[in-house]
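Appendix B, record 7
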Amino acid sequence: MVRKLFRNMMLGMLLVFALTTNASTPDSLMAKANAAYDHQLYDSAVNTYQQILKMGVVSPALYYNLGNAYFRKKDVPSAILYYEKAKKLSPNDPDILYNLNRANTMIVDKIDKVPELFLKRWWNYFYNLFDADTWAALSLISFAMLVLMVGIFVLSHRRGTRKLSFFIGLIFVLLTLLSFGLASQRTYYTKKHSEAIVFTPAVTVKSSPSDNSVDLFVVHEGTKIKIMDEVDNWVKIKIQNGSIGWLPQSSLRKI
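Structure tokens (predicted):
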């Protein structure tokens, strides 16, 4: 009787443990957060999405959903921050781009972007064409084709075939180097925090990292800036029109 009771207690404890563990998995938490969002419980959705982030989960869908929840809470700077995080991982997702553009129409600062050089514009086009994993896969495919062309060149006895495989091999050399370089750069970009969003309603950009330095201009919450340098608790920033200055680190949150 005692043995049976002990066994039942152990089974009950294992069942409770299993249910508790299952309730705190990223997938179950994502479902819980999505359900809260669907029922317009945006505070609960944000808190649950943040729990998933604390578990080390990183995905464009998670950042996108979190951005949507903040947007519904009318917290535009936070919405832009997480839309930008989602965009880093999935640069061509139409839903992310649409919601990010929509959120940017709601901020105070409307900064004209400095026109880019033709070559840089083309490079950015290819750079944003795929994410890091896709570029890495393309580099492996290009390398495999390169090895195939080398094999054909070495084994073939026909001059025409050797000549053709040589020139096709050169093309795959270029494609391998290009795709590998883009994969490396995208991986570095996704891990590096070189951009940030202003989270202070209005903050004055200074000429140097000091409260007593000259006031240059004012930026408002939600504005995206590029981080150029960091000194103590100050950050050297650059906005889209090319203007440069210093802001307190506490006024920003890195993307």
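Remarks on this record: Residues 198 and 252 are 5 Å apart (CA to CA). The first helix runs from residue 2 to 23.
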